[in-house]
Amino acid sequence: MSAFLIDIKDVTHAYRTKAGPLPVLDGLNVQVPEGEFCAVVGPSGCGKSTLTRLVAGLMKPDKGEVWLHGERVTSPRKTVGMAFQNPVLLEWRTILDNVILPLEIVAPRMPQRDRVERAMHLLEMVGLKGFEGKRPSELSGGMRQRASLCRSIVHKPDVLIMDEPFGALDAFTREDLWQTMRDLRAAEPFTCVLITHDLRESVFLGDQVIVLSGRPARTQHVLRVDLPADRTIESLYTPEATAMLHLLRDEIRRAQGREGAVH
Amino acid sequence: MDLVKKIAIPVAAIVAFLAFWEFIVWVNGWPNFKMASPSDLPPAFARYAGLFVEMGWQTLWRTVAGLCLAVLFGTLLGMAMGFSKIARDALYPLLVGFNAVPKATLVPVIALIFIGQHDFNTVLMAFLISFFPIAVSVGIGLSTLEPEYRDILRSLGASKFTIFRKIALPKTLPEFFGALKVSVTLAFIGTNLVEIVPPHGRGLGALFKSGETNGDYPLMFAVLIALAVLGIVLYYAVVALEQIFAGWAERPGG
Questions:
Q1: Distance between B155 CA and the closest CA of chain A, angstroms
Q2: What is the structure's pLDDT at B1?
Q3: Is residue B254 part of a domain?
């Protein structure tokens, strides 16, 4: 029994391609205690998305083990929520019905009234009240991503996996969503793995930031973020945060194999 | 106002087309055994009104029956090709080859195999000619489903069937209806290919043939118009179904 809610032990994985095996993860270790927010950063194409699929049980690693809640992950589990860069809302459903979708799978016996109540509660929290009857195509990118967030936590998963969920949004919308995310976490505790390219995002949201090396990815550096839980965008401009951002930037440069280079 | 526009514009276009046709015949002074004009048609319809209703019904039900088979078989085939790469690789060349064979050449073949089965032969031909677009578009719709859509439900432990029912099926509907619109008109061609061959002798195709035999050119043109009308009716029936089941795919203001 592991002390961590998410425990990735020594995971190695390679994709089989025409040009031979392509190693993406090499002895990766990630530990996330219950309720913590773990941001994962690393160079492009270093295997971050593979990590999300492993935790979700959508694929099995070649070597090593993935544990959730003291159980070894070998197949998908109902207690996981996922959000992607593309909000992947179903165009033929209203926003409300999109948010309800996971409940139809994991709680088939839940009365529709309770499902609607739960979904409306979340939609209100992310500021989408009044839009529940709209189709996804009638909403802006930021609003769609908010709806996608609601869908990923509507069934109260104990693990939320996000793969660059804010990557396609403009900078201001992104900052809005960081704050939404922070408020959601305060209201609904969950353990979270966030894959991101944005160092400020990782420091704003993370309790720990894990820097992965270039492909094949290993854990290169683990940074504890000792900022208060009620962070604001302003917190990112404090000396502590600036120091952390500098450190992460150096680590990323090292991961890219450009150590010492001036950028 | 919108509704008026929606009806008035196509009606005006049809009237303009008929006027142009009348004009061409009149200006060339063609007798109606060379080319009938629109004004010859109402008398032809009036004289054979009973036959038009009877034969039109024959053609319609056989076409619809063939289409239903095409939807069923085409969807199943499309599902097989959409979900399995082996099925896709195996079936594509066969399907394309089969579709490239001119269906008119199959009429005598079918007539010989199922001799005397006139209804069956006609429905079979309507089916054979119209299932291809449905199979291909359902197959492409399913095989191009973005993996993230699947992952959302798969990460919750949903079964393959649930994923199909909740995501793949509705997502493929716009493509399916697009193909069905093509299939509707193809199915009429199939029905008439068989009906026009004398031993099968029923439906609008047979009426056309009898017009030819008797040198009744206005009748032949009247049959063509009747076919066009049936085609339009069935096409808009599909459009109505599309509005009901895949209306979400239409973007506002699009």
A1: 5
A2: 66
A3: no
**B42: closest CA of chain A, how far (Å):** 46
Instruction: Give chain A's contact residues with B (Cβ, < 8 Å).
Output: 53, 56-58, 75-78, 80-82, 84, 86, 88, 90-92, 101-102, 104-106, 135, 137-138, 151, 155, 161
The pLDDT score that the predictor gives to residue A78 is 81
Low-confidence ranges of chain B (pLDDT < 50): 253-254
Question: In the prediction, which pLDDT does B143 show?
Answer: 87
Q: Which residues of A touch B173 (CB under 8 A)?
A: 92
Residues 151-180 of chain B whose Cβ lies under 8 A from any Cβ of chain A: 151-158, 162, 166-167, 170-171, 173
Out of A67-76, A134-143, A172-181, B71-80, least confident range: A67-76
Contacts of A155 in chain B (CB under 8 A): 156
Q: Does B201 touch chain A (CB under 8 A)?
A: no
Are B26 and B147 members of one domain?
no
Statement to judge: residues B90 and B192 lie in one domain: yes
The per-residue pLDDT for range A196-214, each reduced to its tens digit, is 989 999 999 999 999 988 8
- The pLDDT confidence band at residue A259, using thresholds 50, 70 and 90, is low
In a domain, B22, yes or no: yes
Domains and CATH numbers, chain A: 1-79+158-180+190-263 (3.40.50.300), 86-157 (no CATH)
pLDDT above 60: residue A263: no
Contact A58 B154 (CB under 8 A): yes
Q: Which residues of B touch A75 (CB under 8 A)?
A: 157
The CATH number of whichever domain residue B66 belongs to comes to 1.10.3720.10
Identify the pLDDT of residue B254: 41
Token digits for B64? 């619809």
Its domain, for residue B102, covers 36-249
Q: Which residue of B has its CA nearest to A107?
A: B156
Q: Tell me how many domains chain B contains.
A: 2
Statement: residue A258 has pLDDT above 90:
no
Predicted confidence at residue B117, as pLDDT, reads 81
Mark yes or no for CB contact A105/B153 under 8 Å: yes
For residues B214 and B185, state if they share a domain.
yes
Q: Which B-chain residues 234-253 have CB contacts (< 8 A) with chain A? A: 246, 248-249, 251-252
Verify that B109 and B181 share a domain, yes or no: yes
